[in-house]
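Appendix C reproduces, verbatim, an entry submitted by the partner laboratory led by Prof. M.T., so that reviewers can inspect both the input and the predicted structure.
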Amino acid sequence: MAMGIAIGSDQGAAGEYNGRMTLFVVLSCMMAAMGGVIFGYDIGISGGVTSMEPFLKKFFREVYTKMKEDTKISNYCKFESQLLTSFTSSLYVAGLIASFFASSVTKAFGRKPSILVGGAAFLAGAALGGAALNVYMLIFGRVLLGVGVGFANQSVPLYLSEMAPPRYRGAINNGFQFSVGIGALSANLINYGTQKIKGGWGWRISLAMAAVPASILTLGALFLPETPNSLIQQNTDPQTAKSMLQRIRGTQDVQAELDDLIKASEISKTIEHPFKKIIQKKYRPQLVMAIAIPFFQQVTGINVIAFYAPVVFRTMGIGESASLMSSVVTGVVGTGSTFISMLIVDKLGRRVLLLVGGIQMLVSQVMIGVVLASQLGDHGGVSEGYAVLVLVLICVYVVGFGWSWGPLGWLIPSEIFPLEIRSAGQSINVAVNFFFTFVVAQTFLAMLCHFKSGIFFFFGGWVAVMTVFVYLFLPETKNVPMEQMDRVWREHWFWKRIVGEENDASKMEE
């Protein structure tokens, strides 16, 4: 987190709440954001080890044989294997299922216990993966990692959004994606180093090192404070929640915010089935965004780069070591652009970053597709100059994602739900995210084999669609307190027709 975003009042543009960014909030959110590090580490590590020859030779010999010995197979088809993609995607099936259990835990017991469960499950998965003797042991370890990521991704973005003052909510929540970038970059660096270990067991270190951030998250979660929203939701003495709110806001005058939290909690307690409640018409905008945003985040094609960047570079004929170093480069620029997003998201707003990032990703993907279509055939490689050009274009694409759909894909869903459906909404967001992550991860290598360079045009088309969607249907949410977020839908040109009709009907019934 950026310590320099420090001082100021939340009155004015952010609403009537008092308070400032406190060191207590910054430190708490830094610890919670370790949930992003474990997610990012796994993304980076799985893409790297699946390009390591000793790893492929031990667990996926069919792929190893195609890569080393089959001279007739197309460049684009060397890595096609449903078993290999199952290694990557099994985590996301487990995460999808776990996110729904995490919703109940997060609502009933609080954000902190859910973060703790996530860290512990990920720690167990890291140990199992590092010690794997066969592919079944390897994939079971991935399932445990998935449970950890499912719980962490459900609870951490909520925790960050609820702890942050409204004026700085974007910066604090974007710290989750920044942490994902740090985790992925760390994994890429470790892969680059372990690939050079003689004896071919470096991949074990890569997989087992996931235990480091998982241990930090698990131990750190024991000392995390619970959010005021969660304390009130759990029927805790309002004075306890008030004391916590005063501590995290750095002021004694928090009554206005506390009143809104209590009011939201009272509404929340009248709802027994939040998943049934969320399909009601008055929550239609939030439900659409909970499905559309994570879907669009995945069909940007980012996981083509995140999971399989080394595979893509090896497809172009680049060596193992150079492929892993290329992933390090993309990791550095992605993390840097997410940090920039943290600094500007609360000034420029969500919509501007999504629109600019979408155009940037579209242009770079089309150019990558053109270069590969013209230069990379079914056999042979590309020249060094074109390989560098593709790397530069991928970096431009990653920068665009890093300051737009990467962090904002987690920020926006975590801030738009009213308290009574917040846990359910975040679970839907995580589940949709994991489902389409699984679909992309499971199908990409087959799509690469059949679409060849056209794969980049395919994802580019989706980027065009989602950019238009943002322009037409996503209202600006910067500086709006979470408990007053319903007003952005009532003022939007399209959504006011739906939620406005619902409000009118409610008034007539009263």
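Residues 422-451 form the longest helix (30 residues). Additional entries are available on request from the coordinating office.
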